[in-house]
Design brief:
- By secondary structure, the chain is α+β, with helices and mostly antiparallel strands.
- The chain folds into three domains: about 1-65 and about 165-265, Phosphatidylinositol 3-kinase Catalytic Subunit, Chain A, domain 1 (Ubiquitin-like (UB roll)), CATH 3.10.20; about 80-155, no CATH class; about 270-315.
- The chain contains nine helices and 14 strands.
- It has helices at about 1-5, 20-30, 70-75, 120-135, 140, 195-205, 235-240, 265, 275-315, and strands at about 10, 15-20, 40-45, 50-60, 65, 85-90, 155, 165, 165-170, 175, 185-190, 215-220, 225, 250-255.
- The strands form five sheets. Strands 3, 4, 11, 12, 13 and 14 form a six-stranded mixed sheet that branches.
- The protein starts with a helix and ends with a helix.
Length: about 325
């Protein structure tokens, strides 16, 4: 049993494939993506085959998703401080939807060389000039007096995340719906389950929604749609399905908005509306025939049972 397990690779809960089979598919997979970042590597860890690399995932969500207003790396940024050289003042975000923040530069003139005999008079003149400039910018500085040999004042933008996967979103509401069919990727390995891959993907883009709201689907060009179960291994399944995304893609979709489409149903949905209508008519006719057969069967059974019931009654009396 141990020998068999060593030669098998898990692709889902209670689902295994032979190691040589998946390595053969992996070779084809890497030939398809030769020279590209999507090529996969493999190694063995204590006899277990591990495949790792980038997996393409396509966005298929219909409802807005919630994003963090700021990246984690921005939360630890030091607050601007006053120095003798310059002052950084962080202002509130502009009120307009698309208005961009402007900058104000107020720089005092460089000190000029003065004769020692007129140093005190020049110093008084310099202090008056600096006080005048500070007063003119007091509305921006909140009335704070600042002194120093050089004064630099500028407005600094807040470090809000302004785009998601190359698309801009409303940073005031922090919600966004990715374009349907747009692609992203995550670096994973074949030992990771669907649930783990989902968490890596949502963490990558700082998505605050509960991971349970989404799931991964394999969508075939025929229209067939198969949900990856929580304990499936998406990268291993992708290798076995083949590399061509013109044939099938992995989509991230809402769990409660999408349902699976079996192969039997998928073979019909590509037809034109009149053809589909004729299929429905034929299915209804077949359903009606089956219902009539079932009704006749139960009618016959009831008749026979009642006949024997009547015979027993007559015998008793």
């Amino acid at each position: 049993m141990d020998t068999v397990d060593a030669d098998m690779v898990q692709i889902g809960e209670h689902k295994f494939v032979n190691k040589s089979t998946i390595l053969s598919h992996l070779k084809t997979y890497n030939l398809y993506y030769e020279g590209q970042a999507l090529q996969l590597r493999h190694r063995e860890d204590e006899g277990e085959l591990i495949i790792e690399g980038l997996l393409n995932v396509f966005w298929g969500v219909r409802r807005p998703i919630r994003l963090q207003m700021q990246d984690d790396k921005d939360t630890g940024r030091p607050h601007p401080s006053l120095t003798s050289q310059s002052v950084d003042i962080t202002t509130a975000e502009n009120e307009g939807a698309n208005q961009t923040s402007t900058s104000i530069e107020v720089t005092a003139a460089d000190d000029q060389s003065r004769d020692s005999s007129g140093e005190e008079a020049a110093g008084e003149h310099e202090e008056l000039t600096r006080s005048d400039r500070v007063a003119r910018t007091s509305s921006d500085l909140g009335g704070r007096r600042i002194s120093g040999r050089r004064l630099g004042i500028r407005r600094v933008k807040r470090h809000h995340r302004c785009s998601f996967n190359g698309h801009f979103y409303n940073h005031k509401t922090a919600v966004f719906t990715p374009a349907f069919g747009s692609v992203t990727n995550v670096r994973i390995n074949s030992g990771m389950t669907t649930t783990q891959v989902m968490r890596v993907l949502l963490n990558k883009f700082k998505i605050e929604n509960n991971p349970d709201e989404f799931t991964l689907y394999f969508v075939h060009t025929s229209g067939e749609r198969q949900q990856l179960k929580p304990n499936d291994h998406p990268l291993a399944v992708r290798v076995l399905r083949g590399p061509c995304e013109q044939v099938s893609k992995i989509f991230l979709m809402e769990t409660d908005q999408v349902e699976e489409v079996t192969h039997d149903v998928a073979q019909y949905i590509k037809f034109e509306l009149p053809v589909l209508q004729s299929f429905i008519t034929k299915l209804q006719e077949e359903e009606e025939r089956e219902m009539q057969k079932l009704k006749r069967r139960y009618t016959d059974l009831r008749r026979i049972i009642k006949k024997y019931m009547q015979a027993l009654t007559d015998r008793t009396t």
